[in-house]
Design a protein that fits this description.
single chain; alpha/beta; Nucleotidyltransferase, domain 5; 5-stranded mixed β-sheet; 5 strands
C-alpha cells in the first residue's frame, strides 16, 4: 500500500509518500513541502499546489491520498484559505482517480504516537522511528504529512483485520 499524505497550508503544504511493503514495515518514499510565496495571489498559490501535487502523484503513484480535516482556525480568513487549499488537494487526487481519506488531528496523533494530544515534537520523533529515518523529517509540515499517511495505513490495516475476524451472519 502506498499513500500520499498531505498537510494543507497556505504558506507551506507538506507532503509525504509512505509505503507499507510488508506488515508493520513502513518506508518513506518522498517527503517535503510546497513553499508558497506570501505575496502571491491566492489563485497563483492554488495553481502551484495543484500542479505540484499532480506531479507528485504522477511521480510516486500512490494508491490513495490522506489529508487532515479542518479542526480549528484562528480566524475566518485563515479557515477560508485552508479550505481552498484542501479543496485543491482533493481535486488533484480526484483528477488522478484517487480516493481521499480525511482524518482529525486527534486520530492522526493517536495512530502515530498513541496519544491524541501529543506535541508536534513527539509526532516528529515517532514518524522518524516508524519510518526508520536518521533524523526527524524537515520541515515540520513534511513530518505532519508523513504522519497523516501513516495514520491511514494503520487505520486501513485495522479495518482489514476487523473484516477478516468479523463473524459471518447466520441466515436461516
Amino acid at each position: 500500500m502506498r499513500i500520499l499524505g498531505i498537510d494543507c497550508g497556505s504558506e507551506y503544504t507538506g507532503y509525504g509518500v509512505v509505503e507499507e511493503a510488508a506488515p508493520h514495515r513502513l518506508f518513506c518514499i518522498a517527503a517535503g513541502a510546497i513553499h508558497l510565496r506570501p505575496r502571491d495571489a491566492m489563485a497563483v498559490k492554488l495553481q502551484q499546489i495543484y500542479s505540484q501535487l499532480s506531479q507528485l502523484i504522477i511521480d510516486h503513484q500512490p494508491e490513495m491520498v490522506a489529508i487532515e480535516e479542518v479542526f480549528y482556525a484562528v480566524n475566518v480568513k485563515s479557515a477560508l484559505k485552508l479550505g481552498q487549499v484542501r479543496g485543491v488537494a482533493m481535486l488533484a487526487a480526484s483528477a488522478a482517480g484517487l480516493e481521499v481519506a480525511e482524518y482529525s488531528p486527534l486520530s492522526i496523533k493517536s495512530a502515530v504516537v498513541g496519544y491524541g494530544r501529543a506535541e508536534k515534537q513527539q509526532v516528529q520523533d515517532m514518524v522518524m522511528r516508524l519510518l526508520n529515518l536518521p533524523e526527524p523529517p524537515e520541515p515540520a509540515d513534511a513530518a505532519d504529512a508523513l504522519a497523516i499517511a501513516i495514520c491511514h495505513i494503520h487505520t486501513a490495516s485495522t479495518l482489514k483485520r476487523y473484516k477478516r475476524t468479523k463473524p459471518q451472519e447466520i441466515t436461516s
